[in-house]
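Input sequence (230 aa), recorded before submission:
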Amino acid sequence: MKTTLWLATIIGLLPVVLFSLAHLAMWWASPGVASILEEQNERPNEDETSFVITETSVQFDGMSHPLIVNPKAWPAALALVGAMLCVIGLWSLLPRQPVYADSNGHERFERLLARVYKSSAEFPSLGASTTDGQRAIGITRTDTDEWQIGIPMDKGESETLDALRSYFESKGVAPDREYESRDEQFNITTVHLDYPLTGDASIDAEVCTAVFRDIFGVDDNEPMRFDIED
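Predicted structure, token format:
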């Protein structure tokens, strides 16, 4: 919806921009035309005729009346500034596009985490997953300005779930929260584990890499998707 609105507005503003540019071009050219006419005025003639440019008219095929263009520049400049501000405002409404990595997706963790950690957004986050969505994590900032990693796991994958818990236990890290959700349609129970992070992009990137590579079994050749909110 936002993308459609943005495109419709751009198309609607296009005639305004084109006419404004044409207006500015006429304004830019008018001193040269005026100088030519002034040279003609300096030549002696019987009628002592003089010329003054006060407006320019343009008439296209099919127009019943000519279009009168004021040679002043400010109306066109104002229209262009308004169109530019409108586009900038709508740009912020465009949905953020995910980043895809065809291979070596683990190498992007540190750079993307550093970007999110420096963000001044109200709710910055980084989501990472395999492109099929079967394996995923989410890094978010808590209400206390701490960072945490959220990991959803199918309760039926007991071995992977145990390996995940063992990994964080080996680092002396206990979950901030652990809870379950049930999807009756697909008959799946999901265990949600939230673990604290350090807020250091380099250290936390190693954690994310270990989760994907060592626990989920996602190798360097498997494509990954990153969703960034900063």
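Checked by second reader. The CA atoms of residues 51 and 64 lie 27 Å apart.
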